[in-house]
Structure formats: structure tokens, C-alpha cells
Amino acid sequence: MSTCVLCPRECGVDREAGELGFCGAPDALKIARCAPHMWEEPVISGTKGSGAVFFSGCSLRCVFCQNRDISHGSTGREVGEDELCEMLLRLAESGVHNLNFVTPTHYSDKISAILQKIKPQLKIPVVWNCGGYEKPETLAMLDGLVDIYLPDFKYADPALAEKYSAAPDYPQVASAAVSQMFGQVGPVVIGEDGLMKKGVIVRHLVLPGCRKDSISVLDRLAVLLPPKDIFLSLMSQYTPEFASDCEFANLHRRVTNFEYESVLRHADELGFVGFCQDRNSATEKYTPDFGNFVAP
Ligand code: SF4
User: Fold this and answer.
1) pTM of the model
2) Is 156 near ligand 1, meaning CB less than 6 Å away?
3) How many CA atoms lie within 13 A of 141 on its CB side?
4) Among 4, 270, 280, 290, which residue has the fewest nearby CB atoms (within 10 Å)?
5) Tell me: the pLDDT tens digits for 106-134?
């Protein structure tokens, strides 16, 4: 790849020559953490954890990002493709319930090549844990390699997507992306062990002052996908500490009970099933510490 068009930004920079695009990611794979992770939905984390690989950089870089150490910063270290293959196989052998690629979009070509090599050896599902801002061509590279899609659906309003993620096309891109994901993996499949083997979990983080957009996201999603055939994960753990330096005053506070519960009620009315969060988890401690690189 001489010019990068992996995500809808289509920056066209030459990452092999050292140029950086919007995501800030070098051409070499750069990861912040590769370890069992207990903070995903229960059907993903189970009792032994999800084998999560957190990639450095991000093609969305939301102003309120709850993982900003890795998405906005340079935390992490570069690894070769063969080295990552070995790390993934060791992680899988350690007993985790799945391999979980977190914020992987800007490395999707390399990850697709890695999965083609290691997928036949894996006895656990592969999870694609992304921001929902994916091109159809990128998702096509993952067809047959990914078992569980775990995308965000962040905004229904292009103006909000522009303000917070500099991506006014986000609602349109994410709508097409979740439909394509569902077309690839189909309805949720839960194994006898109670863990997810296949399907789509759509995440939505309720933002302070954006309750109406959250409701529009759910309305849109209910038209795109059968609510009972996917899981919806409605997150309340927005922590304003990560957005303290941004210009939008509404993002400087937590989500109220009224805001979260009204969105939750609407999800129920639309027939969604899935996960909601204990409001006590609304603390920055909920997110893992990326300060020290961890690998198996
Ligand atoms: S992956 Fe990064 S460099 Fe490539 S198009 Fe997207 S933001 Fe730009």
C-alpha cells in the first residue's frame, strides 16, 4: 500500500515512507497492550477474559475518547507481523475466550493477512472491536475471518459527528457498515458455555446533552438490523475527565440518570436485547491503564 485509503478518511498519505494520516499510525503495526481483558460485555469477557490487542492510533479520534492514551497519544510499541502472530497464538493458548482486535481499522490490511495465516489454528472466535467507521472494501477483507463484530454506533446526526469526531459522514458510513457486518456473520450465536460465538454487538455510549441523538441512533439501528438478532450494549460510563480540555461545555459533566434511563427505556421499547451498565461504573478507573505495555 503506497497511499493509505484504508478508512473513509482516505488520507492518501504514504505510510511506508513515514507519512502520518489522520489516525497518526505508522505503517508498522503498533500496539499498546496484548493481554486478557475483563472489561468487555459478559458474553465476550466470560470468566477468563477476552484476548484483547489494543492498537495505537485511531481513525476517529473523538474529542471525548475514553482511551485517549492510545488513540491520541503515542503509547505502544511497534511489532512485526510474525511477532504479532506469535503473540496472538500464545494469547489464544493462555485460555482466553476469544481474540479481540481493538481499534484495528487503520491496520486492517495487515490484520487480514495475519488472520489468514492463524485462523485455521484458532479454536476461539475472532472479535473486530471498532468505532463503526469502516469502508465496505475493508470489511470485505475480513469476511470469513471475523466471527463477532463489536462496532460502536456513535451518532445519528452528521453535525454531532462533525463536532466530536470530524466525520460528518459517520452516520451514513456506520449504517452501511453495521448492515454489512450483520450480512457476514448473521444473528447472535451463544455457545453452551454461555459465551458469544458469532454475531454483532452494537455499542452506543450515551453522551451528556445528546440524549435525543442517542434515541435517533436506536431508531436508525432498529430499521437497519432486527433488534432481537443482535445485542445492543448501551454504555453509561462516559467520564468527562477525558474531555476536560475540549471546547464543548456539555461534555464536561457526567450523563445524568434521566438521560441514560430514557435511552435505555427507548431501547427496550424497540425490542433490543443486550447489556446496560451499572451507573457506578462511570469512573475513569473503568478503563485499563495503558501506561505499561503488556504482552503474553
Ligand atoms: S487509516 Fe489512517 S492514514 Fe489511512 S486513510 Fe484512515 S486515517 Fe488516513
Assistant:
1) 0.93
2) no
3) 19
4) 280
5) 999 999 999 999 999 999 999 999 999 99
